[in-house]
Amino acid sequence: MNYHWKIFLKEEYKKPYFIRLIKLIQKEYDNFICFPKKENIFSSIRYCPFQKLKVVILGQDPYYKENQADGLCFSVPNGIPFPPSLRNIFVEIKNCFNCSIPSSGSLIHWAQQGVLLLNSILTVRKGDPGSHKNIGWEFFTDQIIKFISNNRKNIVFLLWGKYAHKKIFLINPFNNHFILKTSHPSPFSVHMGFFGSQHFLQTNEFLDKKGKKPIIWVI
Questions:
Q1: pLDDT digits 0-9 by tens, 64-117
Q2: Contact of 69 with 124, CB cutoff 8 Å
């Protein structure tokens, strides 16, 4: 984890809300099966160096089924079948770039290029979606969004679905960020704007215009 993330985390770790949160999460992992594995809870920032950060994709909470959550929103480990939302993301990429659907659902390759794949809630109990809602994770990840927004310029924020749309107030309007909003890639809403949104193309066009290397979305 690089210097800037360490500076951010050092400040958050001292705050009473975070101390309470970590104690509660420790208790949850001691008493229930929770996802992702402890060592992957902070994978979103571990894999995405702050100075390389170009794009933020916001999710809600981790996958709650066995072997799916890897600490990156929408991503699953190699060899795991694609959840419906991830498959729809790959379909939109296929339509943007006229490429094939990848064989792996791991999005680590995106993170390493500067895509922060950030869930608002970083943990969940097995089989119980939303089980770690309102215990402190949302405040912590909102702080991450504000830290990025205030300390970087020309970042692309991809806000998919009503939950992500609510985070727009955290984004500094004076730092020339590029905000793209559409429906969630879930099967329930993918046809309400996500398919055909061309967010991946628009993101790369913006990055190119700002002199940044585009993201290789095709895995």
A1: 999 999 999 999 999 999 999 999 999 999 999 999 999 999 999 999 999 999
A2: yes
The per-residue b/e assignment along 176-199, b for 16 or more CB within 10 angstroms, e otherwise, is ebbebbbbbbeeebbeeebeebeb
Please give the model's pTM, rounded to 2 decimal places.
Answer: 0.96
Report the C-alpha gap between 71 and 119 in whole angstroms: 8
- The span from the CA of 124 to the CA of 68, in Å, is 12
Strands 124-125 and 34-35: antiparallel
Q: Look at the chain and count its residues.
A: 219
CA dihedral (22, 24, 29, 32) in degrees, to 10, reads: -160
pLDDT per residue over 160-212, tens digit each? 999 999 999 999 999 999 999 999 999 999 999 999 999 999 999 999 999 99
The yes-or-no answer on residue 128 being catalytic is no
30, 61, 128, 142: which is the annotated catalytic residue? 61
Angle at the Cα of 27 (from 122 to 134), degrees rounded to 5? 45
Check residue 22 and give left, alpha or beta (phi > 0: left; psi -120 to 50: alpha): alpha
Angle at 88 between CA 187 and CA 172, to 5 degrees: 95
